[in-house]
Specification:
Elements (H helix, E strand, L loop, with lengths): L1 H15 L2 H23 L11 H13 L4 H10 L21 H11 L10 H17 L7 E5 L2 H16 L3 H4 L9 E4 L5 H9 L7 E3 L10 H13 L4 E7 L11 H11 L3 E4 L24 E5 L11 E5 L5 H5 L3 H9 L1 H4 L16 H10 L2 H23 L3 E3 L7 E6 L2 H4 L3 H18 L5 E5 L2 E7 L7 H23 L6
Parallel strand pairs: 2-3, 2-4, 4-5, 5-6
Antiparallel strand pairs: 1-7, 6-7, 8-9, 9-11, 10-11
Helix pairs in contact: 2-4, 5-15, 7-9, 10-11, 18-19
Bound molecules: pyridoxal-5'-phosphate.
Pyridoxal-5'-phosphate binds next to helix 7.
Amino acid sequence: MDGDHYIRAQERILRAYSPKQFKLDAQTVFEAIATFLMTSQLSEGSVLNWQSMHANMGRASKLLNENSGIDELINVTLKRGQTIHDPRYMGHQVPPPIPITALFEAVSSILNQGMTVYEMGPWSSAVERVMIKELGEQLGLKEGFGGILTSGGSLANLTALLAARNTLDKDVWSKGVTSLQKRAVILSHGESHYSIERAAGILGIGTENNLKTKLDNHSKMDPIALEYQIKQLKKAGQPIIAVVASACSTRTGVFDPIKDIAAVCKQHGIWLHVDAAHGGSVAFSEKYCYLLEGIDLANSIVWDAHKMMFMPALSTYLFYRNSQDQYQSLNQNATYLFDAKGSETLANDTGLGTIECTKRAAALSLWGVWAIYGKQLFGDLVDMTFYMAKRFSELIEKHPDFDLLNQPESNIILFRYLPPEVRYLTERKQGEFQKKVRKCLIESGESYIVPAIDNNISALRMVIMNPLTTERHFNILIQALQKYSKQFIEELAGNALIS
Ligand SMILES: *Cc1c(COP(=O)(O)O)cnc(C)c1O
């Protein structure tokens, strides 16, 4: 009986590990993916296939329990999601990955390199080092810089601020946050990504001590106000762990004047962290690389390859101007640090500077795309998406039914759709209208944009993340907005929206 069990178990295991079956399944799946790419690029389906959580869970449970075949499982998965490859997708900062990355990711999955120590992924560790070197040089970092590859901008921001905190206060790592110098603060861009505030909470600095810096009237960090704030804090005896600049900011997509901020930080001996999760990739664009001027002066920099380098999630590069700083974040004691510096084996272990232990070989796709298409492609993707954002802003600036709320410096546009009937309303009601129209729009699957707040009033936000988006797709969006606003305008006639 026991013997029987193992025989059947072995049969089931061999079936799951069969290379022959894998070959058949791979053909089915890659065929389905290619068809999906084609129909998505032609906008043949919905952008977002809107279903309630309940309906989706029902379908997923049913498929789970009825012994489904791979074609059905893959097809439902391709169809039920957010179709980022459809050029009508103009929503959050998630790109359609360059298709060939799917093949490198498949290889990465099957090899499953653990990465923490060099011998658990010698080739992928080397590829990672090469990409850190190339990207760091692209940012203009000088000899002696270092970097790690980690799982997401949020984790990278946390890691960098951990290094900054441990540099300021050497004891807190071992003695706990009670030893953290009293009232130590972070000074971050007034609209920094929420992961910065979270990091302040996680690191025991306290979210209330993540102080927002003053912004100028282009929503950029104001270096003069920053210096004033630093002087006041110093006078009050409050140590500053780091200044966090944005390149670019999440909501409005503007780049802080890094060079001027770096000069202030240098003068006052403060760690400068630049959150370039979204905008780091402009380093590849001849036209836009000026936006990062001075980034080589930062102590640490975060750059998401899964945003404007069009890689699949997650793949984030964290750079330190001084490579030894990476050991500040997680190394427990000085002897270990000394060993890491002195021993070739330890220095090659990528896990020394990352919060993760096991980690994906996330550099392979970038390495592959760069090798096959050349690095010019990354500049092209930035130029094209930034250009189309500019085009859209020009289109709606002239249009009587739109209010453009920012002059885009990147691929992020803020606006409100305000047809004549809505312009009579109070600002708050105009804001409510943006939310209602967007809900109808995204549930229709005809276009996809995201909500935003501007001046405390609801607005709409668009990020051109698909390099295939053109004016044709803008017109589809505008027509859909017109169509879905009709029903609210009819409601308005019945005074339903008027305060
Ligand atoms: C996207 C983003 C983050 C968060 O990165 P994840 O990879 O999503 O964790 C942080 N900061 C900025 C400026 C971003 O654009």
